[in-house]
Design brief:
The complex is a heterodimer of chains A (113) and B (113). Chain A is mainly beta and 113 residues long. Chain A is built from no helices and 10 strands. In chain A, strand 3 and strand 4 form a beta hairpin. Chain B starts with a strand and ends with a strand. Classes of the chains: A mainly beta (113), B mainly beta (113). Chains A and B meet through strand 4 of A and strand 5 and strand 10 of B.
Chain lengths: 113, 113
């Protein structure tokens, strides 16, 4: 089936710096994307979403960018804090395929003091 | 609201035994999802229900897996007989059908020895 993301990379950033987490998707029919944050021992938690008719959406300290041409998503976290340390997943969905969100393998973000 | 409640949090069982995982969705949510998370395969959707009716069970790996939702406030995922390769973290999530954000439970870590 279609897949989102290829590996589980690790990103280490200094506290206070900006973080950029990337995600590649392969289903060109996908029209809706979500970023989730998963802390150790917890379930994934919704961060921000974006529809395919947008290329940028901002939340509190987070920005998601969507490049449909190259099928790429990114999550930018401003002024990264220790509490941001977690695994971040992108998930894609095509509304024509119901509720089946395809999750990527995730990226582990470590915030260094 | 207490969020999505899963039980047990941890389950260790012997190969061949029956395992039942339980989920209480958030009140008012009418879509419920069961996911499995492993290092090798990431987060995979097993089955989802809408208004207590199974809509898509194509992710259920084998006939050993079954899921029920007898009412709007309770769902079970059963594995019979269990095998060591079933070891994973199983998440339940719920949402309102019209909303995009799904809320995940804390998960059940299953170990089959």
């Amino acid at each position: 089936g279609e897949s989102v993301g290829l590996h589980l990379p690790t990103l280490s950033v200094q506290e206070g710096d900006n973080s950029i987490i990337n995600c590649a998707y392969s289903n060109s029919a996908s029209d809706y994307f979500i970023w989730y944050k998963q802390e150790s021992g917890k379930g994934p938690q919704f961060i921000i979403d974006i529809r395919s008719n947008m290329d940028k959406r901002q939340g509190q300290r987070v920005t998601v960018l969507l490049n449909k041409t190259v099928k790429h998503l990114s999550l930018q976290i401003a002024a990264t804090q220790p509490g941001d340390s977690a695994v971040y997943f992108c998930a894609e969905n095509s509304f024509g395929y119901g509720q089946n969100f395809v999750f990527g393998p995730g990226t582990r973000l470590s915030v260094l003091p | 609201d207490a969020g999505v409640i899963q039980s047990p949090r941890h389950e260790v069982t012997e190969m061949g035994q029956e395992v039942t995982l339980r989920c209480k969705p958030i009140s008012g949510h009418n879509s419920l999802f069961w996911y499995r998370q492993t290092m090798m395969r990431g987060l995979e959707l097993l089955i989802y229900f809408n208004n207590n009716v199974p809509i898509d069970d194509s992710g259920m790996p084998e006939d050993r897996f079954s899921a029920k939702m007898p009412n709007a406030s309770f769902s079970t995922l059963k594995i019979q007989p269990s095998e060591p390769r079933d070891s994973a973290v199983y998440f339940c999530a719920s949402k309102k059908t019209v909303d995009n954000e799904a809320f995940f439970g804390q998960g059940t870590r299953l170990t089959v020895v």
